[in-house]
Amino acid sequence: MKKQVVVIGLGRFGSSVCRELYALGHEVLAIDQDVEKVDAVNDFSSQASVANATDEKDLKSLGVRNFQHAIIAIGDDLQASVLCTLMVKDLGVEKVWVKARDLQHQKILEKVGADRVIQPENEMGIRVAHHVDSEKIVDY
Ligand code: ATP
């Protein structure tokens, strides 16, 4: 089933989520404050817009409230990440998944209502370890 997803923050993580969801056939609105990041996903999203993710007016005018799912991928600017999470939740987006850079960031995001918090490096590290572990069966 086609989903409506808004991806906010188009660094390495956000842009890769955006491209993959779009390739899978979903409707993807991509948002970043940096015009170059937005241009880079222009052909790999349904709509790509320059906006400030901490500005409620920007989020409202882009119709973020109409999306079922949001991925917020702002890692370095903790304040922007938290504010954006609060606003997107307040707008009524059902599932808000947010990237965190560390455990402290994760705890704050959980408190303000993030539905899922992702630490990509941690999760990928665990996944790679399991791949290595499962290879012992093949190697033996
Ligand atoms: P990566 O996924 O590359 O590891 P990162 O975790 O280092 O990224 P940042 O580089 O801090 O995260 O942010 C990712 C993106 O979010 C950047 O492209 C940046 O322009 C964008 N961004 C940061 N703050 C805002 C904001 N207030 N509004 C819109 N976009 C923002």
TrEMBL record:
Residues 2-118 form the RCK N-terminal domain. One of its GO terms (molecular function) is monoatomic cation transmembrane transporter activity. One of its GO terms (biological process) is potassium ion transport. This is TrkA family potassium uptake protein. It comes from Planococcus salinus.
